[in-house]
Fold DUF484 family protein.
Amino acid sequence: MSRAAPEPRKTLDPDRVAEWLATHPDFFVGREGLLQQLKVPHPEARGATSLLERLVHDLRTRAEQAEWRLEQLLESARHNEAQYRRTRELVLALVEAQDRDALGQALATHLAEHFATPAVALWCPSSLSDAEPHPPQAPRQVLDEHAGSRLAALLDGRTSRCTRLTPTDWKRLLPHTSAPRRSGSCAITRLSLGEPLGYLVLASPDPDHFRASMDTLFTEYVGDVVARLLIRLGPEHA
């Protein structure tokens, strides 16, 4: 008489076990010894470790990650506060300028000292300078057709843009400064307030200081302030 074949060993579906445990969180109440016997893969080495040790490790890792995220948020907040204070000081200095030359000089000084921008040019059409008793002082420049064409080409139809600046363009667009031997970088914004008022150029000899991928919100904001002040500080203030 032949023996009956043994029944195949039944195994539980891991997903169903996990689902059941999730709906019965009190399963291990009174079964603490079972918790101590459970082994799980070690997160950093081969082999297994107890469930409790793994839980302690995971909690420590989460605490470290939370601490890192908090530090990142604090660092971002400190940076934003410092940026706000620098921008506030810049705008106040511009508002206090008594004439257009003082406006340009305040712009260049604050950008160099507080925003790591060593070179600035403020290109304005001759209509803003003809009635003034003296020629514009650097960083103000009288916008001619040649400079206007090159600035428009660098903007490539945009209101503002960050781009590389060749030594030739540097000499042409920032003639009052020393040109670097190699290409630098710049942020350009068009100035307008009902009428074209020129261009603002912020430049650095570092080719990566103003990268093409950078946001130009700050440059546009400064340009908007400068455009309004150029109109306010008309020839009668010169």
